[in-house]
Design brief:
2 copies of one chain form a homodimer.
Chain A: H1 16-38, H2 41-47, H3 52-58, H4 62-86, H5 91-107, H6 113-117, H7 125-149, H8 154-177, H9 184-199
Chain A binds a DNA duplex (30 and 30 nucleotides) through helix 3.
DNA-binding region (chains A, B): 40-59
Pfam families (chains A, B): TetR_N (PF00440)
Keywords (chains A, B): DNA-binding
DNA sequence: CACCGAACTTACGCAGCAGTAAGATGAGGG
DNA sequence: CCCTCATCTTACTGCTGCGTAAGTTCGGTG
């Protein structure tokens, strides 16, 4: 039960780029564990086995350090999502792949998803914008697929995508926090099925329908 | 364009309970606008037309003040949700009512929903627990309905409920932030339809199904 | 009308933490 | 072997903002 990252080798000098990578890793751990506000620059430096001014030789301030991480992981999520949707032409498979991508993102990379989904700095415009932009880009990727294969209006497709992304994000986060009760695979499949049942064949039913009542 | 709340009557003495209510209202405005961290006790006091120590005669500290508001609005949401689900026996109607309740909650009460859904204090256990508890209670209300009318297993029903609540929360928040593009009514209906198509008749299809591919 | 207690004020202590001089240290080239 | 420059350290400053000590005003009651 020692520190998970390298506080190892306290007192070794590192070339610039290597040190920078390590500082980012240390910062991620601390920001994820404590959130932005409770994270102290001293602790980040400590965890990297280095003193505070070194941190300031690599990043102009706490905010920029945080934004670098946020940017990196936001991009990673969108990219994962894009790959998932391009991985197949079958829309049923696309839904599965898309949810899998969300769950993978949440399950991976030292819980970095908390920076993107649970930032305690959303009141800062720069952060809010980045978060929302990421969310929207994911939704837009899905919206494009929906529009492409249906006659749903742009506006409706957009809102439906938002709802689906919200569903993915929420269930993935919940699943991770209550690990152990359900394997990732089962959780993904279940939620993907819910989503697929929701959107598939949307064209065929129109606004007035009652759709039975079996629940 | 004066201050929306009562900084009016600076210098009037108020009986204890009345002052308390007013302080809570002032605090809500500031916490909603700035978030917990950026909210200053001085500003809250100012907005109530009073000096800081008065605040401390009503609440032991910033945190307790915040928790009082969080508690109040969390309870309101769960209650709204409970009423919605009890308002009818028709499950299709229940879904509509449930989403409507979410949208109403988000649309109402000076954006108090931001305290419950977008708190920048989630890293504090007390706050995290309250938020998650609220979320779970909403899901549980829905889960109970699902289980009651289907043969879905408890675990599956629970995860499905989580997904649905996530969908509601996300779409309601998104809808509010991008007001104007769609009327509340339309947004509610659209998302409710997505949800209903997702869960209704779940029993009839089983795990292996392909369910067509019309998108 | 004098007194009392609740409601309120000004003015400060104090702690945590981002960011910054100014100086030490060590690896590599001449 | 010594000079240089990048890397790193110790030790500080300054600010912001919560919480409080001590003193003031005003409505009501005997």
């Amino acid at each position: 039960m020692t520190a998970p990252s390298d506080a190892r080798a306290r007192g070794t000098r590192l070339p610039r780029v290597r040190r920078r990578r390590q500082l980012l890793a240390a910062a991620q751990e601390v920001f994820v564990a404590r959130g932005y506000h409770a994270a102290a620059m001293d602790e980040i430096a400590d965890r990297a086995g280095v003193s505070k001014p070194v941190l300031y030789q690599h990043f102009p301030g706490k905010l920029e350090l945080y934004l670098a991480l946020l940017e990196e992981h936001s991009e990673a999520l969108v990219e994962k999502q894009r790959e998932a949707l391009e991985s197949t032409d079958d829309n049923r498979q696309r839904v599965t792949a898309s949810f899998q991508a969300y769950f993978d993102f949440v399950a991976g990379d030292g819980e970095a998803f908390r920076l993107v989904f649970e930032s305690d700095l959303r009141n800062l415009p720069a952060v809010r914008e980045k978060s929302e932009e990421t969310f929207q880009r994911c939704a837009e990727l899905i919206g494009k697929v929906i529009r492409q294969d249906t006659s749903i209006s742009d506006e409706e497709a957009h809102l439906l995508s938002i709802a689906l992304v919200g569903m993915a994000e929420t269930s993935a986060r919940y699943w991770l926090n209550n690990h152990g009760s359900v394997p990732q695979n089962a959780a993904e499949q279940l939620v993907a099925r819910l989503a697929w049942r929701g959107i598939s064949g949307w064209d065929l039913t129109r606004s007035g329908e009652e759709d039975g009542d079996g629940d």
